Fold this sequence. Notes:
This protein is α+β, with helices and mostly antiparallel strands and 392 residues long. The protein is 50% helix and 15% strand. It has 13 helices and 10 strands. Strands 1-4-5-8 form a 4-stranded mixed β-sheet. β9 (277-278) and β10 form a beta hairpin. The longest helix is centred in the first third of the chain and has 30 residues, at 70-99. It is globular and about 80 Å long. The structure holds flavin-adenine dinucleotide.
Amino acid sequence: MPGGMSFELTEDQELIRKSVRELASKFDDHYWMEKDLAHEFPREFYDAIAKGGWLGMTIPEEYGGHGLGITEATLLLEEVSRSGAAMNGASAIHLSIFGMQPVVKHGSDELKAETLPRIVNGDLHVCFGVTEPGAGLDTSRITTFAKREGDKYRINGRKVWISKALESEKILLLTRTVPFDEVTKKTDGMTLFLTDLDPDHVDIRPIKKMGRNAVSSNEVFIDDLMVPVEHRVGEEGKGFKYILDGLNPERMLIAAEALGIGRVALEKAVKYGNERHVFNRPIGMNQGLQFPLADSLARLDAAELVLRKATWLYDNGKPCGREANTAKYLCADAGFGAADRALQLHGGMGYSEEYHVSRYFRESRLMKIAPVSQEMILNFLGEHVLGLPRSY
Length: 392
Ligand SMILES: Cc1cc2nc3c(=O)[nH]c(=O)nc-3n(C[C@H](O)[C@H](O)[C@H](O)COP(=O)(O)OP(=O)(O)OC[C@H]3O[C@@H](n4cnc5c(N)ncnc54)[C@H](O)[C@@H]3O)c2cc1C
């Protein structure tokens, strides 16, 4: 339909949805509950996704991947999340699916050849190290420093919240190579590396957290880590720009994950609403419970449409900042809203682990905070779309 609007996925995209749904359904809610309670990485699930060839979805074909776009990647993560795997499932594979894009786009041929095929076959686990305790959302204030010494860099610093660091062999690490005070533009002077988490120089300590406990999030202390120049991604000083390129697709992936949780929460709520009888009637007959679910359905459907538009724009090489940010904002809100309402509808049982909605509630709450908070999304829309003065 050239020039017109189409709301249909292609046959291939439908096939991806269906295949991932089938694969993910082999790991039921009970599996995820157990992994979450035991704080255990979902290795069986990760291996099954790798065996199915899904980890290489967006990696170029020359490195063994399928070279697909963000639309397909969001479908995959939405289905994983929707299976009940929620954020535990999504975070186990999230970085392999799209997080290597800075390496794909800016890495040397050697670095790509060394790492990308191993991402595809599942052998190489990576984590992403941006956040620091002293910088918060103001990434320009990071202080982890990479000092050039001959053909190596000496890296010292501290990262926080680094997901999957405990299970990863390598880290995609954002550092400063010029101190903040010495750059003219505050986002200059940052350099990206893909390097090994050498246990002799990197101390990793898991953070006790509210949910998504099958995948660790960690404090990472880096002490005189010597990194060969070959592990640098692209040019020195351009690391922030490389990360920035990946922000919109990252927001879309998170949106898809939130959407998936919202959908599964709603399904569980409808089931329980029909089954559970109190005062001689199914509880779902009460408008006080039914209307919030219908409202959540409408919000999820609307949020999904913005997400589809955002992924379409990105895959067609068009600007998508407004849509990517809006999709993340609305999907995170709708996903959490649905999980909260599903929990409420389950009454006391909602608070138990048995019905899984409490897990969805905890995990969907995260999407309003990370990888970027709802407030920062509104800052973007206010400033860059509405044209209001920068508020911070
Ligand atoms: C479970 C989990 C996993 C994570 N995984 C990773 C990971 O793998 N790698 C990684 O690098 N990071 C990771 N993070 C970090 C995450 O990206 C940050 O927590 C997030 O970006 C928020 O930053 P902050 O925690 O430093 O909040 P802060 O910057 O301290 O902000 C605190 C609050 O203030 C608000 N705020 C700050 N400035 C403004 C402003 N100007 N206007 C309006 N509001 C403002 C924020 O929105 C937020 O609500 C993870 C976090 C969690 C919780």
